[in-house]
Amino acid sequence: MSEVRNVLVKLQALFALIGFAALTPLLVLAAILGRLIAILCCCSPPKSIEGEVAVVTGGGHGLGRAISLELAKKGCKVAVVDINLSGAENTVKQIQETYKVCAKAYKANVTSHNEIVELNSKVVGDLGSVTVLINNAGVMLHRNSLDPEPADLQLMIDVNLTSHFWTKMVFLPPMKALRRGFIVTISSLAGIFPLPYSAAYTASKAGTLAHMRALQMELVLEKQKDIHVTTVLPSFLRTNDEVTELTKSIGFNSIYPLISAEEVAQRVVAGMLRGEHEITLPGLTSVFYRLIYLLPSDWQIRMTVLFTKNQIKRFREVRS
Ligand SMILES: NC(=O)c1ccc[n+]([C@@H]2O[C@H](COP(=O)([O-])OP(=O)(O)OC[C@H]3O[C@@H](n4cnc5c(N)ncnc54)[C@H](O)[C@@H]3O)[C@@H](O)[C@H]2O)c1
């Protein structure tokens, strides 16, 4: 029986490999052509968000700050939300120095449903009804990566995943009543290419992707075609100093250079306004992950380990 199973697994792997080899050039070509056609023909013209109200969680630093500035550039009023109020105030100062839009800093912990409810009341009173939600706040590293404390694991899941349920519960119903809005969720490539020794991060980011796909289906079923959901899956960014140092010390930048917050923010806001559902950065990873998913699961793991084993070994050494 087990011999038959082994033969079947080998056959499955062989078919997947043939499909992989045959489809790679076609999918790469299709991705390039699709992008070119979208740019040349402006298939879906970008929507305007001038005068709309955006909430950006984790807007006091890094990618959240860059997205806040990019939204302000498009004429959007911005509620910059962070657990670190001085970071949020700094972002607001930068917005007010450059753009003529209303922006206000708010202190809130996204893991608390009550604080999100209070935040919504304040923002509606100060700026108006929220029609753009950017779920960006995130925690990336545990104090002890190889053997994290239960409280650290819980915090990562609460900030990176559970908080998106709280923001959805609070901000989506008014969007549904207005029949328009944008929800952008910052996930990570770790959500589709698992990061060993970062299981909670990987699980939280895979969870956000699954959450947003389920939400998209619900909005289709409810015919809410003017509420757009965009999930962003970036590679490592040059935003958080600890992550930047770590990726350099493990040699990740030799696989792909770290991406700047400004580059991601421009891509995210442009994609959001065109109603794109999923944005991977770099873009070609959207083709690679679909190809790798054709392989049997143990081959997927072997291939990923093959390409990243030196970096994973260094990660273990650096974080031990
Ligand atoms: N840095 C990377 O390499 C990278 C790669 C892929 C995805 N991402 C994701 O991008 C997002 C932004 O990352 P970043 O590098 O700009 O992070 P960052 O650490 O520079 O900024 C995160 C911000 O979130 C805030 N925050 C943390 N916990 C919070 C809470 N409980 N309530 C409210 N605010 C809170 C922090 O105070 C900080 O201002 C995160 O979701 C992260 O997982 C980052």
TrEMBL record:
Assigned keywords, A-Z: Lipid metabolism, Membrane, NADP, Oxidoreductase, Transmembrane, Transmembrane helix
Places the protein is found: Membrane
Molecular function terms from GO: all-trans-retinol dehydrogenase (NADP+) activity
Principal place of residence: membrane
UniProt-listed InterPro entries: NAD(P)-bd_dom_sf, SDR_fam
Gene Ontology CC annotations of this record: lipid droplet; membrane
UniProt keyword NADP, yes or no: yes
Membrane association type: Multi-pass membrane protein
Domain of life: Eukaryota
Cross-referenced Pfam families: adh_short (PF00106)
Stated role: Catalyzes the reduction of all-trans-retinal to all-trans-retinol in the presence of NADPH.
PANTHER family to which the protein is assigned, alphabetical: FI23927P1-RELATED (PTHR24322:SF748), PKSB (PTHR24322)
Family in the record: Belongs to the short-chain dehydrogenases/reductases (SDR) family.
Name this polypeptide is given: Short-chain dehydrogenase/reductase 3
Species assigned in the record: Drosophila rhopaloa (Fruit fly)
Name of the encoding gene: LOC108052247
